[in-house]
Protein backbone atom coordinates (compact mmCIF):
# COMPACT_ATOMS: atom_id res chain seq x y z
CA UNK A 1 0.00 0.00 0.00
CA UNK A 2 2.76 2.41 0.95
CA UNK A 3 4.55 1.60 -2.31
CA UNK A 4 1.71 2.76 -4.53
CA UNK A 5 2.88 6.39 -4.31
CA UNK A 6 -0.54 7.62 -5.28
CA UNK A 7 -1.74 11.13 -4.74
CA UNK A 8 -5.34 12.20 -4.94
CA UNK A 9 -7.29 14.98 -3.32
CA UNK A 10 -10.65 14.73 -1.62
CA UNK A 11 -12.04 17.75 0.12
CA UNK A 12 -13.47 16.87 3.51
CA UNK A 13 -14.24 20.28 4.87
CA UNK A 14 -10.89 22.01 4.57
CA UNK A 15 -8.88 18.81 4.83
CA UNK A 16 -6.99 17.41 1.85
CA UNK A 17 -6.71 13.63 1.98
CA UNK A 18 -4.08 11.64 0.10
CA UNK A 19 -4.29 8.00 -0.94
CA UNK A 20 -1.32 7.31 1.29
CA UNK A 21 -3.67 8.13 4.21
CA UNK A 22 -6.22 5.59 2.97
CA UNK A 23 -6.22 2.55 5.21
CA UNK A 24 -6.65 -1.08 4.22
CA UNK A 25 -7.27 -2.89 7.50
CA UNK A 26 -7.41 -6.67 7.78
CA UNK A 27 -9.00 -8.45 10.69
CA UNK A 28 -6.93 -11.59 11.14
CA UNK A 29 -8.18 -14.57 13.09
CA UNK A 30 -6.18 -17.57 14.26
CA UNK A 31 -6.45 -19.39 10.93
CA UNK A 32 -4.13 -16.92 9.20
CA UNK A 33 -0.57 -18.11 8.54
CA UNK A 34 1.84 -15.21 9.20
CA UNK A 35 4.08 -16.10 6.25
CA UNK A 36 1.18 -16.05 3.78
CA UNK A 37 -0.09 -12.54 4.56
CA UNK A 38 0.33 -10.04 1.71
CA UNK A 39 1.65 -7.27 3.90
CA UNK A 40 2.39 -5.06 0.88
CA UNK A 41 -1.36 -4.73 0.28
CA UNK A 42 -2.25 -3.74 3.84
CA UNK A 43 -1.70 -0.78 6.13
CA UNK A 44 -3.03 -2.34 9.37
CA UNK A 45 -3.82 -5.75 10.85
CA UNK A 46 -6.30 -6.14 13.70
CA UNK A 47 -5.41 -9.44 15.33
CA UNK A 48 -8.62 -11.02 16.65
CA UNK A 49 -9.30 -11.50 19.47
CA UNK A 50 -8.13 -10.97 23.00
CA UNK A 51 -11.07 -11.63 25.31
CA UNK A 52 -12.05 -9.63 28.40
CA UNK A 53 -13.16 -11.07 31.70
CA UNK A 54 -15.80 -9.52 33.90
CA UNK A 55 -13.13 -8.53 36.43
CA UNK A 56 -11.31 -6.48 33.79
CA UNK A 57 -8.43 -8.88 33.18
CA UNK A 58 -7.85 -10.46 29.78
CA UNK A 59 -8.32 -14.17 29.25
CA UNK A 60 -4.90 -15.89 28.93
CA UNK A 61 -3.85 -15.49 25.30
CA UNK A 62 -3.33 -18.66 23.24
CA UNK A 63 -1.90 -17.30 19.99
CA UNK A 64 1.37 -15.80 21.24
CA UNK A 65 3.69 -17.33 18.65
CA UNK A 66 1.40 -16.49 15.75
CA UNK A 67 0.94 -12.88 16.87
CA UNK A 68 4.66 -12.37 17.43
CA UNK A 69 5.39 -13.72 13.94
CA UNK A 70 2.82 -11.38 12.38
CA UNK A 71 4.28 -8.40 14.22
CA UNK A 72 7.81 -9.26 13.10
CA UNK A 73 6.75 -9.63 9.46
CA UNK A 74 4.55 -6.53 9.56
CA UNK A 75 7.43 -4.38 10.81
CA UNK A 76 9.40 -5.21 7.65
CA UNK A 77 6.57 -3.76 5.54
CA UNK A 78 5.66 -0.78 7.75
CA UNK A 79 2.29 -2.38 8.54
CA UNK A 80 0.82 -1.55 11.94
CA UNK A 81 -0.61 -4.32 14.13
CA UNK A 82 -3.44 -3.82 16.64
CA UNK A 83 -5.01 -6.19 19.09
CA UNK A 84 -8.79 -6.39 18.72
CA UNK A 85 -10.39 -6.95 22.13
CA UNK A 86 -13.89 -8.40 22.35
CA UNK A 87 -15.78 -9.41 19.21
CA UNK A 88 -18.98 -11.31 18.52
CA UNK A 89 -17.84 -14.45 20.32
CA UNK A 90 -16.42 -12.53 23.33
CA UNK A 91 -16.26 -15.71 25.41
CA UNK A 92 -19.97 -15.96 26.17
CA UNK A 93 -21.01 -16.51 22.55
CA UNK A 94 -23.60 -15.02 20.23
CA UNK A 95 -22.83 -11.37 20.81
CA UNK A 96 -23.44 -11.58 24.56
CA UNK A 97 -21.57 -8.56 25.95
CA UNK A 98 -22.22 -9.14 29.67
CA UNK A 99 -18.48 -9.23 30.38
CA UNK A 100 -18.05 -5.71 29.04
CA UNK A 101 -21.19 -4.50 30.81
CA UNK A 102 -19.88 -5.76 34.13
CA UNK A 103 -16.24 -4.73 33.83
CA UNK A 104 -17.11 -1.13 32.95
CA UNK A 105 -19.54 -0.77 35.84
CA UNK A 106 -16.92 0.19 38.43
CA UNK A 107 -13.85 2.46 38.20
CA UNK A 108 -11.77 -0.34 39.72
CA UNK A 109 -12.53 -2.98 37.09
CA UNK A 110 -12.15 -0.42 34.29
CA UNK A 111 -8.73 0.42 35.67
CA UNK A 112 -7.81 -3.27 35.66
CA UNK A 113 -8.97 -3.60 32.06
CA UNK A 114 -7.06 -0.53 30.88
CA UNK A 115 -3.90 -1.79 32.60
CA UNK A 116 -4.36 -5.31 31.16
CA UNK A 117 -4.73 -3.97 27.62
CA UNK A 118 -1.76 -1.65 28.07
CA UNK A 119 0.44 -4.48 29.32
CA UNK A 120 -0.68 -6.70 26.42
CA UNK A 121 0.29 -4.02 23.90
CA UNK A 122 3.69 -3.66 25.55
CA UNK A 123 4.30 -7.40 25.69
CA UNK A 124 3.67 -7.92 21.97
CA UNK A 125 5.04 -4.54 20.82
CA UNK A 126 1.78 -3.59 19.15
CA UNK A 127 0.80 -0.29 17.54
CA UNK A 128 -2.65 0.08 18.98
CA UNK A 129 -6.00 -1.20 20.19
CA UNK A 130 -9.25 -1.95 18.39
CA UNK A 131 -12.06 -2.04 20.95
CA UNK A 132 -14.70 -4.52 19.77
CA UNK A 133 -17.39 -3.97 22.34
CA UNK A 134 -19.87 -4.04 19.52
CA UNK A 135 -23.17 -3.76 21.36
CA UNK A 136 -23.12 -1.26 24.24
CA UNK A 137 -26.76 -0.54 25.06
CA UNK A 138 -28.48 2.74 25.63
CA UNK A 139 -30.00 1.15 28.74
CA UNK A 140 -29.06 0.02 32.25
CA UNK A 141 -28.14 -3.60 32.99
CA UNK A 142 -28.67 -3.86 36.75
CA UNK A 143 -27.69 -7.55 36.64
CA UNK A 144 -24.19 -6.40 35.66
CA UNK A 145 -24.12 -3.95 38.55
CA UNK A 146 -24.82 -0.92 36.41
CA UNK A 147 -26.47 2.20 37.79
CA UNK A 148 -26.18 4.09 34.49
CA UNK A 149 -26.63 3.21 30.84
CA UNK A 150 -23.94 1.15 29.13
CA UNK A 151 -23.44 4.08 26.77
CA UNK A 152 -22.28 6.22 29.70
CA UNK A 153 -19.80 3.59 30.82
CA UNK A 154 -18.66 3.10 27.23
CA UNK A 155 -17.66 6.74 27.03
CA UNK A 156 -15.81 6.54 30.34
CA UNK A 157 -13.92 3.46 29.16
CA UNK A 158 -12.98 5.11 25.87
CA UNK A 159 -11.68 8.19 27.69
CA UNK A 160 -9.58 6.08 30.05
CA UNK A 161 -8.18 3.94 27.25
CA UNK A 162 -7.32 7.04 25.23
CA UNK A 163 -5.45 8.56 28.15
CA UNK A 164 -3.41 5.39 28.66
CA UNK A 165 -2.66 4.89 24.98
CA UNK A 166 -1.57 8.51 24.62
CA UNK A 167 1.16 7.84 27.20
CA UNK A 168 2.60 5.21 24.86
CA UNK A 169 1.88 7.05 21.58
CA UNK A 170 -0.42 4.22 20.48
CA UNK A 171 -3.43 4.32 18.15
CA UNK A 172 -7.02 3.56 19.10
CA UNK A 173 -10.01 2.44 17.03
CA UNK A 174 -13.44 1.01 17.79
CA UNK A 175 -15.74 -1.32 15.87
CA UNK A 176 -19.43 -0.43 15.56
CA UNK A 177 -22.53 -2.01 14.04
CA UNK A 178 -23.77 -1.09 10.58
CA UNK A 179 -26.86 1.09 10.77
CA UNK A 180 -29.04 -0.36 13.53
CA UNK A 181 -30.04 2.69 15.56
CA UNK A 182 -31.36 0.53 18.40
CA UNK A 183 -27.84 -0.78 18.98
CA UNK A 184 -25.89 2.12 17.53
CA UNK A 185 -27.44 4.46 20.08
CA UNK A 186 -25.20 2.82 22.67
CA UNK A 187 -22.20 4.54 21.06
CA UNK A 188 -22.26 8.19 22.23
CA UNK A 189 -21.10 10.75 19.67
CA UNK A 190 -18.67 12.17 22.20
CA UNK A 191 -16.67 8.93 21.91
CA UNK A 192 -15.60 9.84 18.37
CA UNK A 193 -13.37 12.57 19.80
CA UNK A 194 -11.24 9.99 21.62
CA UNK A 195 -10.58 7.49 18.82
CA UNK A 196 -8.42 7.67 15.72
CA UNK A 197 -11.03 5.98 13.53
CA UNK A 198 -14.21 3.88 13.63
CA UNK A 199 -14.56 0.52 11.88
CA UNK A 200 -18.14 0.28 10.58
CA UNK A 201 -19.31 -3.33 10.28
CA UNK A 202 -21.45 -2.77 7.20
CA UNK A 203 -22.35 -6.43 6.82
CA UNK A 204 -24.56 -9.03 8.54
CA UNK A 205 -27.62 -6.94 7.74
CA UNK A 206 -30.53 -9.11 8.84
CA UNK A 207 -33.02 -6.96 6.93
CA UNK A 208 -31.65 -7.95 3.54
CA UNK A 209 -30.94 -11.43 2.23
CA UNK A 210 -27.76 -10.13 0.58
CA UNK A 211 -26.53 -9.05 4.07
CA UNK A 212 -23.93 -6.64 2.64
CA UNK A 213 -25.22 -4.89 -0.45
CA UNK A 214 -23.87 -1.66 -1.94
CA UNK A 215 -27.07 0.00 -0.81
CA UNK A 216 -26.44 -1.16 2.75
CA UNK A 217 -22.90 0.27 2.63
CA UNK A 218 -24.35 3.66 1.70
CA UNK A 219 -27.01 3.30 4.40
CA UNK A 220 -24.34 2.64 7.03
CA UNK A 221 -22.31 5.67 6.01
CA UNK A 222 -25.44 7.84 5.99
CA UNK A 223 -26.28 6.64 9.49
CA UNK A 224 -22.88 7.18 11.11
CA UNK A 225 -21.70 10.24 9.19
CA UNK A 226 -24.92 12.15 8.52
CA UNK A 227 -27.09 11.11 11.47
CA UNK A 228 -24.51 10.37 14.17
CA UNK A 229 -21.97 13.05 13.14
CA UNK A 230 -18.97 10.76 12.79
CA UNK A 231 -16.37 12.72 10.77
CA UNK A 232 -15.92 11.08 7.36
CA UNK A 233 -12.15 11.25 7.87
CA UNK A 234 -12.58 8.89 10.86
CA UNK A 235 -14.95 6.44 9.15
CA UNK A 236 -13.69 3.07 7.86
CA UNK A 237 -16.08 1.07 5.68
CA UNK A 238 -16.36 -2.63 6.47
CA UNK A 239 -16.24 -5.24 3.70
CA UNK A 240 -17.11 -8.95 4.01
CA UNK A 241 -14.78 -11.66 2.74
CA UNK A 242 -17.56 -14.20 3.25
CA UNK A 243 -21.13 -14.83 2.17
CA UNK A 244 -24.45 -15.88 3.66
CA UNK A 245 -26.58 -18.04 3.97
CA UNK A 246 -25.01 -20.11 5.46
CA UNK A 247 -21.91 -18.14 6.47
CA UNK A 248 -19.21 -19.29 4.03
CA UNK A 249 -15.72 -17.90 3.41
CA UNK A 250 -14.96 -16.58 -0.07
CA UNK A 251 -12.24 -19.23 -0.52
CA UNK A 252 -14.79 -21.98 0.13
CA UNK A 253 -17.27 -20.34 -2.26
CA UNK A 254 -14.59 -20.49 -4.97
CA UNK A 255 -14.11 -24.18 -4.17
CA UNK A 256 -17.81 -24.69 -4.96
CA UNK A 257 -17.65 -22.69 -8.19
CA UNK A 258 -14.28 -21.71 -9.77
CA UNK A 259 -16.11 -18.86 -11.57
CA UNK A 260 -17.37 -17.37 -8.30
CA UNK A 261 -15.02 -14.38 -8.70
CA UNK A 262 -17.26 -13.15 -11.54
CA UNK A 263 -20.46 -13.44 -9.51
CA UNK A 264 -22.10 -12.44 -6.23
CA UNK A 265 -24.25 -15.56 -5.74
CA UNK A 266 -23.23 -19.23 -5.81
CA UNK A 267 -25.35 -22.17 -4.64
CA UNK A 268 -27.70 -19.80 -2.83
CA UNK A 269 -24.82 -18.11 -0.95
CA UNK A 270 -24.84 -14.34 -1.46
CA UNK A 271 -21.47 -12.59 -1.10
CA UNK A 272 -19.37 -9.68 -2.36
CA UNK A 273 -17.28 -10.61 -5.38
CA UNK A 274 -14.27 -8.59 -6.57
CA UNK A 275 -16.36 -6.22 -8.71
CA UNK A 276 -18.65 -5.27 -5.82
CA UNK A 277 -15.70 -4.76 -3.47
CA UNK A 278 -14.08 -2.47 -6.01
CA UNK A 279 -17.30 -0.44 -6.13
CA UNK A 280 -17.41 -0.19 -2.35
CA UNK A 281 -13.76 0.84 -2.22
CA UNK A 282 -14.57 3.54 -4.76
CA UNK A 283 -17.46 4.65 -2.54
CA UNK A 284 -15.07 4.98 0.43
CA UNK A 285 -12.58 6.96 -1.66
CA UNK A 286 -15.22 9.26 -3.12
CA UNK A 287 -16.71 10.03 0.29
CA UNK A 288 -13.34 10.88 1.80
CA UNK A 289 -13.30 8.05 4.32
CA UNK A 290 -10.29 6.99 6.36
CA UNK A 291 -10.23 3.66 4.54
CA UNK A 292 -11.75 0.20 4.35
CA UNK A 293 -11.49 -2.85 6.59
CA UNK A 294 -12.56 -6.43 6.10
CA UNK A 295 -13.43 -9.62 7.94
CA UNK A 296 -11.54 -11.88 7.54
CA UNK A 297 -8.08 -12.30 6.03
CA UNK A 298 -7.94 -16.09 5.83
CA UNK A 299 -11.11 -16.16 3.69
CA UNK A 300 -9.27 -14.69 0.68
CA UNK A 301 -7.33 -16.56 -2.01
CA UNK A 302 -3.82 -16.03 -3.41
CA UNK A 303 -4.85 -16.01 -7.09
CA UNK A 304 -4.38 -12.34 -8.04
CA UNK A 305 -7.23 -12.45 -10.58
CA UNK A 306 -9.68 -13.71 -7.97
CA UNK A 307 -8.34 -12.18 -4.75
CA UNK A 308 -10.65 -9.76 -2.92
CA UNK A 309 -7.71 -7.94 -1.33
CA UNK A 310 -6.14 -7.48 -4.73
CA UNK A 311 -9.44 -6.07 -6.04
CA UNK A 312 -9.42 -3.45 -3.28
CA UNK A 313 -5.86 -2.43 -4.12
CA UNK A 314 -6.62 -2.30 -7.82
CA UNK A 315 -9.31 0.30 -7.17
CA UNK A 316 -6.98 2.39 -5.06
CA UNK A 317 -4.32 2.26 -7.78
CA UNK A 318 -6.73 3.95 -10.18
CA UNK A 319 -6.13 7.17 -8.27
CA UNK A 320 -2.64 7.37 -9.72
Q: What attributes characterize this protein structure?
A:
320 residues, TIM Barrel, two-stranded antiparallel ribbon, 9 helices, disordered N terminus
Fraction in beta strands: 15-25%
Q: Roughly how many Å apart are the termini?
A: 12 Å
* Main structural class: alpha/beta
Oligomer: single chain
- Give the ordered list of helices and strands: EEEEHEHHEHEHEHEEEHEEHEH
Mean pLDDT: 92
Query: Low-confidence parts lasting 5 or more residues at pLDDT below 50?
Result: 1-17
At the fold tier of CATH, the topology name is: TIM Barrel
Name the helicity range.
Answer: 25-40%
Using DSSP, what is the number of strands? 14
Mind telling me the C-alpha Rg?
A: 19 Å
What do these coordinates show?
This protein has 320 residues and is of the alpha/beta class. The chain has one domain (2-243, 273-317): Glycosidases (TIM Barrel, Alpha-Beta Barrel), CATH 3.20.20.80. Helices cover 32% and strands 19% of the residues. It has nine helices and 14 strands. The protein has helices at residues 64-76, 98-103, 107-124, 150-167, 181-184, 214-227, 250-256, 274-286, 308-317; strands at residues 10-12, 15-17, 23-28, 44-50, 80-86, 128-132, 171-176, 197-200, 235-240, 242-243, 248-249, 265-266, 269-270, 291-295. It has an eight-stranded parallel β-barrel with strand order 3-4-5-6-7-8-9-14, surrounded by four helices. The chain has a two-stranded antiparallel sheet with strand order 1-2. The protein has a two-stranded antiparallel ribbon with strand order 10-11.
Amino acid sequence: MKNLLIVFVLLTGSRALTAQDFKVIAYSFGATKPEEIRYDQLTHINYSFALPQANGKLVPFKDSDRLRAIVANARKHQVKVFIAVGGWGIGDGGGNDFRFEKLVSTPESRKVFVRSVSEFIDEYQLDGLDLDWEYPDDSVNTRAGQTQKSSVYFLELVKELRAELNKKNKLFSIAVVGSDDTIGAGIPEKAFEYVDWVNIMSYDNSNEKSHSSYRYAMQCLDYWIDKRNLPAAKAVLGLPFYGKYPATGYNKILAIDPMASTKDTVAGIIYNGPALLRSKTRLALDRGLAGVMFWELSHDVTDAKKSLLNAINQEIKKQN
